Every structure is written in C-alpha cells, then in structure tokens.
Amino acid sequence: MAWYVVVAAISALSRTHGVSGPYLIVAPLSTIGHWARELAGWSDLRTLVFHGSADDRSVIAKYQWHAQ
Known about the structure:
The chain is mainly α. It is built from 3 helices and no strands. The protein is globular, with a radius of gyration of 13 Å.
C-alpha cells in the first residue's frame, strides 16, 4: 500500500470520525524520516518518532508521548 493512502486514511479517521489515535506506523528504519515528514506535510496530526536506545525511548515515553 502506498504511503499516501495510509496518511489519507489516518487523517480522515482523525478529522471526519474524531478518532484521534494514537496510531502506530511500523516501517523500516530507512523510511521512518520519510513517514514523519509526509505525515507532518499532509496532515495536521502530531508525529513522534519512537526510536533510539532504551534510555532514549524511556525519555520519549515519559516526556513526549502525552505532551500536547
């Protein structure tokens, strides 16, 4: 499935149906930056790249996961 179909579906769920997520997109590490960039460019959804060492992910989960 092409990335734009996924972005459009998630954006529609959020805007039209009020399903605010969170949504999890699992992708190869080489494409994570692309996904984050496209989601930011084509939707009003907040994106968070959950990647790094165990300590990095712990900080992300603690301070950024629920931040507005």
